[in-house]
Amino acid sequence: MSTPIQCPICAGTGLVSRPPWIAGDIESYTTSTTGPYPCNACGGQGYIMSPPPIPFIGKIPTAADYNDGRLPDGTQARKDNPK
Ligand SMILES: [Zn+2]
């Protein structure tokens, strides 16, 4: 089940001042068009459907859990592939 929530990108306005095709970490850009632009995240609706909640299946491993090479459930973590 998902519910509509206010779009975090445009704050519910459906419009953004930054061209949607410009990456968020680009601080300066030039464009031949002027804003505001329709929000890409919500399609100009101002809201998005929240994803269904992720089932919580247990404790989230932290760095400390890996220090002894074991996962929280006692299984041995792989050491041949640190990623
Ligand atoms: Zn939006």
Commentary on this structure:
This protein has 83 residues and is mainly beta. The protein has a domain at 1-23 and 31-53. It is 5% helix and 12% strand. The chain has one helix at residues 63-66, and strands at residues 4-6, 15-16, 37-38, 47-49. The strands form 2 sheets. It has a two-stranded antiparallel ribbon with strand order 1-4. The longest helix is centred in the last third of the chain and has 4 residues, at 63-66. The protein is elongated and about 55 Å long. The model has no long low-confidence stretch (mean pLDDT 79). Zinc ion binds at residues 7, 9-10, 14, 39, 41-42.
Assembly level: single chain
Number of helices: 1
N-to-C CA distance: 33 Å
Instruction: Describe the largest sheet.
Output: 2 strands, antiparallel
What is the CA-based Rg, rounded?
A: 21 Å
H/E element order: EEEEH
Please tell me what the overall shape is. Answer: elongated
Bound ligands, named by name, code or SMILES: zinc ion
**In percent, how helical is the residue content?**
under 10%
What structural category characterises the helix and strand content?
Answer: mainly beta
Q: Count the beta strands.
A: 4
Query: What spatial order of strands do you see in the largest sheet?
Result: 1-4
Average of pLDDT: 79
